[in-house]
Amino acid sequence: VWASIALNTLMESISLSAGGSGEAEGEFHTEILPHLEACLQEHKIPLSNSIAAMSNFQIRISKVLQPTLLLIIRDQILHDAKCGFVFADRGKFKKATVHLEMVKDALVRIFGNEDMRTMTAILGLAQVYWGLGRLEEAISLQRCVVETRSKVFGAEHENTLQAMDQLGRSYWLHG
Q1: Are 6 and 35 in contact (CB under 8 A)?
Q2: CA–CA separation, 105 and 126 (whole Å)
Q3: Is this structure's pTM higher than 0.85?
Q4: CB < 8 Å & 24+ apart, contacts of 23-32
Q5: Are 172 and 153 spatial neighbours (Cβ–Cβ below 8 Å)?
Q6: CB 107 within 8 A of CB 118
Q7: How many other CB atoms are there within 10 angstroms of residue 152's CB atom?
Q8: Tens digits of residue pLDDT in 36-77
Q9: 92-107 pLDDT tens trace
Q10: Residue 111 contacts residue 117 (beta carbons within 8 Å)
């Protein structure tokens, strides 16, 4: 019980900032990292595990008949995203991958590939893959986001151009 309370308190203190983490936020992440790892170890189950056990039919039915379940799942996905963000920010890419892959998979199952949150999660996972040296996988994810954003927003939209810029940088750095 106390581990859950501590984990929820930590999750409330972490923000998913769009512009990356600043110096003060990075120091904060360094200071809470041992506490986060201890809480997650005590928790022992991945936060977004419940969505993995649900079928697509159950997800569709939950949207209508069990909106409370979707709120709980949303919070679990957000917690995993925050954990992945902190781990990635502190260079613990393997731990970040575990959380961010669950976030990506859950968002794809619930909202599909064309949702902005899903695309943002995919790009975050691609950055972590890049940090692990899994360059082909990172580029593949970035390419999927560029294709999806081109289809949804158009080739000249700001979001599409930002994804193209990131993909172009990856191609250039990868040679």
Answers
A1: yes
A2: 13
A3: no
A4: 25/89, 26/89, 26/90, 29/86, 29/89, 29/90, 30/90, 32/86
A5: no
A6: yes
A7: 15
A8: 998 888 875 554 555 665 666 666 666 666 667 777 788 888
A9: 999 999 999 999 998 9
A10: yes
Say what the alpha-carbon torsion angle 124, 127, 149, 173 is, to the nearest 10 degrees. 170
Q: Amino acid identity of 4?
A: S
Q: What angle do CA 145, 89, 134 make, to 5 degrees?
A: 50
Helix (H) or strand (E) holding 11: helix 2-13
Is 97 strand, coil or helix?
helix
Report in angstroms the alpha-carbon separations of 86 from 17, 68, 163. Answer: 11, 27, 22
What CA–CA distance (Å, rounded) separates 120 from 127? Answer: 11
Q: How many C-beta atoms surround the C-beta of residue 16 within 10 A? A: 13
The reported pLDDT for the residue numbered 47 is 47
Residue with tokens 């022992």: 44
* Crossing angle (nearest 10°) for helices 135-153 and 116-132: 160
